[in-house]
Design brief:
- The structure holds two protein chains of two kinds.
- In chain A, 52% of the residues lie in helices and 14% in strands.
- Chain A has helices at residues 2-19, 25-41, 46-59, 68-87, 114-127, 144-155, 168-181, 199-212, 229-239, 257-266, 287-295, 300-305, and strands at 102-108, 132-137, 159-160, 186-191, 216-222, 242-248, 270-274, 282-284.
- An eight-stranded mixed sheet of chain A has the order 3-2-4-1-5-6-7-8, with helices on both faces.
- In chain A, α2 (25-41) runs antiparallel to α3 and α7 (168-181) runs parallel beside α8 (199-212).
- The longest helix of chain A has 20 residues, at 68-87.
- By secondary structure, chain B is of the alpha/beta class.
- In chain B, the strands form two sheets. An eight-stranded mixed sheet of chain B has the order 5-4-6-3-7-8-9-10, sandwiched between helices. In chain B, strands 1-2 form a two-stranded antiparallel ribbon.
- The chains are: A alpha/beta, B alpha/beta.
- Chains A and B meet through α2, α3, α6 and α9 of A and α2, α6, α7 and α10 of B.
- Bound molecules: guanosine-5'-triphosphate (2 copies) and magnesium ion (2 copies).
Chain lengths: 306, 318
């Protein structure tokens, strides 16, 4: 993931601070230039990158006579704080509760990996002993129901869908009601891909959400997305109550920096990452441990609190 | 008075330092429009090299001169040096009594199968008969997806409208089989049945996945398609560069051939989802030097366009 790769570059950029005899504006600018270039190459939203640069700059007052050591610490901690802001929206992800139905609705752009990830997630909980199932509320894409059906059958996950019903709201409602009645605990609802430019698709998403009243809505994002992510993510959040993000296709070369802007735009944490096309290519993602591992420094928290 | 006059309107030589702040802004602007950052950098460098030492015209501002030069470069990058004329080439192979073969490739979920169906619709509208080869034998539902499209297309263009002939057929062997072999059988079938075009759908694959990239190279080598189209989505950021470089490289390296068949053209999909962030068009053409043959602008059969270079450049520069 983006920050993992960045870790190295950032450490090297920060080292330039320690090597410099005096910390002046020039040194800071050079360091920020390096960090920002690395972020942009990883597709992090350019507005967020500019913000990071301004925020780090604003904490340092070069006219202040404070010693070099102090300045170094201040700069370091400002950089860390800003990086953490990129991945950590500061809210706890939704925790499904055992022994009662948890309805999870998947939304996202076309082809981002929703259907594949739905099965992976249902399977993940099934393996942990939950009664989980799948509902196919995509009546639009050619072969969508067959796709989910084949995936679910292979994984032995109960599923619901229809070849004839054309209204996704009806299917979603029927499927969720049926599985609730059968005391399923983890009910995953797959929906069609959509984008903010097409109102009717967004309206349909809202109707499905109103019908099944999900406990959590997961926004699925492809790791290769570039600068268009933020506007899409924000639009999804404005329409329905997105609560979590999953970034897919991180098994490739993509660093996922563009997808990360979905975290800021939806104020939702990344909960899983997709790392392949197979059913167990799904890894839980925990923001805080990820950050400390990334920065590779034990005293980060302390540094930041100061 | 004379020297004052000179100072006011006199011409000035352009230096790198003068341009630096303007170019920094342009680079950020291009990145914000989703041009890959490496390519945004290269474009700005080439503008700098081109303008360095040039004399700034009397009433020209530096910013406008830089802009004009960049605009020119962008138009050049997007303007194909070679035209891909599919209809002409299909007529040509019709004369030779052999099917015209096109294959689609790209990473996962970008819109290969959907845009294959759209292009199929366009071919049928031009009165050609098509055989779709279902060579994605991996992803769940891939075969059914194509079958659904075949049915829809045949109901829009029923045999009654075409002298009793079924306009599109599907050649499929289910899942798990070797893709290159299915494509070969499909092409042979099309030749015998006198079908004009074979469209080969392939499974999405990550550019770093060596076994899958080798399998693609084999499919292309064995079947020698007339046209290899790379399908990429307009949403993609910096990855556009890596995808195209590595697809081309794999087709070259794994084909074990003197004259390997690499990417002939690009289908740029999901153009309706990106507002003004049209930079992927630049990244993809810059890297390959190959034309964008089609633009996908939606999820229906009619949502297939060709690139309007002027419009895209003006959106980029806005
Ligand atoms: N390599 C890789 N491929 C993935 C991953 N997740 C999904 N895919 C592939 O991405 C493609 C699209 O996945 P889908 O699950 O069909 O995407 P979707 O969001 O449901 O698509 P629509 O329903 O059309 O909007 C398929 O080829 C999947 O196999 C992943 O983590 N890694
Ligand atoms: N908005 C929009 N959606 C598109 C466009 N082209 C394809 N899609 C959608 O993108 C999703 C994925 O399309 P597919 O054709 O299945 O993609 P693929 O590349 O064949 O996917 P895999 O075979 O799984 O790798 C579907 O929901 C399509 O409807 C387009 O131009 N615009
Ligand atoms: Mg789907
Ligand atoms: Mg496909």
């Amino acid at each position: 993931m983006v920050l993992a790769d960045l870790g190295r570059k950032i450490t090297s950029a920060l080292r330039s601070l320690s090597n410099a005899t005096v910390i002046n504006e020039e040194v800071l600018n050079a360091m920020l230039k390096e960090i920002c270039a690395a972020l942009l190459e990883s597709d992090v939203n350019i507005r967020l990158v500019k913000q990071l640069r301004e925020n780090v700059k604003s904490v340092i007052d070069f006219d202040d006579m404070a010693g070099g050591l102090n300045k170094r610490r201040m700069i370091q901690s400002a950089v860390f704080k800003e990086l953490i802001k990129l991945v950590d929206p500061g809210v706890k992800p939704y925790q499904p509760v055992k022994g009662r139905p948890n309805v999870i609705m998947f939304v996202g752009l076309q082809g981002s990996g929703k259907t594949t990830t739905c099965t992976k997630l249902a399977y993940h909980y099934m393996k942990k002993g939950w009664k989980s199932c799948l509902v196919c509320a995509d009546t639009f894409r050619a072969g969508a129901y067959d796709q989910l059906k084949q995936n679910a059958t292979k994984a032995r996950i109960p599923f619901y869908g229809s070849y004839t019903e054309v209204d996704p709201v009806v299917i979603a409602q029927e499927g969720v009601d049926m599985f609730k009645a059968e005391n399923f605990e983890f009910i995953v609802v797959d929906t069609s891909g959509r984008h903010k430019q097409e109102d009717s698709l967004f309206e349909e998403m809202l109707q499905v959400s109103n019908a099944v009243k999900p406990d959590n809505i997961i926004f699925v994002m492809d790791a290769s997305i570039g600068q268009a992510c933020e506007a899409q993510a924000r639009a999804f959040k404005e329409k329905v109550d997105v609560g979590s993000v999953i970034i897919t296709k991180l098994d490739g070369h993509a660093k996922g920096g563009g997808a990360l802007s979905a975290v800021a735009a939806t104020q939702s944490p990344v909960i899983f990452i997709g790392t392949g096309e197979h059913i167990d290519d799904l890894e839980p993602f925990k923001t805080k441990p990820f950050i400390s591992k990334l920065l590779g420094l034990g005293d980060i928290e302390g540094l930041i609190d100061k | 008075i004379f020297s004052l006059f000179k100072n006011l309107v006199g011409s000035k030589t352009i230096s790198e330092e003068d341009m630096a702040p303007v170019l920094d802004k342009m680079r950020d602007h291009l990145i914000a429009k989703n041009v890959a950052s490496e390519i945004a950098g290269k474009l700005c460098d080439s503008v700098a090299a081109k303008l360095n030492g040039k004399v700034l015209g009397t009433f020209e501002s530096l910013a406008n001169t830089v802009k004009a030069s960049l605009t020119e470069s962008l138009v050049q990058i997007l303007s194909p040096r070679r035209r891909v004329d599919i209809l002409r080439d299909v007529y040509e192979s019709q004369k030779q009594k052999r099917p015209y073969v096109m294959s689609f490739c790209g990473v996962n979920g970008v819109g290969k199968s959907t845009n294959l169906a759209k292009i199929c619709f366009w071919l049928i509208e031009n009165n050609f008969r098509v055989l779709i080869a279902a060579c994605d034998t991996f992803r769940a539902g891939a075969v059914e997806q194509l079958r659904t499209h075949m049915r829809h297309l045949n109901s829009i263009h029923p045999p009654e409208k075409h002298g009793g002939l079924q306009m599109v057929q599907l050649y499929e062997k289910g899942y798990g089989k070797d893709a290159a072999g299915i494509a070969l059988e499909a092409i042979n079938h099309a030749r015998e049945a006198g079908i004009d075009v074979v469209m080969i759908d392939t499974a999405g694959r990550m550019q770093d996945n060596e076994p899958l990239m080798r399998a693609l190279a084999k499919l292309i080598k064995v079947n020698e398609p007339d046209l290899v189209l790379f399908v990429g989505e307009a949403l993609v950021g910096n990855e556009a560069v890596d995808q195209l470089v590595k697809f081309n490289q794999a087709l070259a390296d794994y084909s074990a051939s003197e004259n390997p068949h690499t990417i002939d053209g690009i289908v740029l999909t999901k153009f309706d989802t990106i507002d003004d962030k049209v930079g992927a068009a630049i990244s993809m053409t810059y890297i390959t030097g190959q034309p964008i043959v089609f633009i996908g602008t939606g999820q229906t059969y009619a949502d297939l366009k060709t690139l309007n270079v002027k419009a895209v450049v003006s959106i980029l520069m806005k």
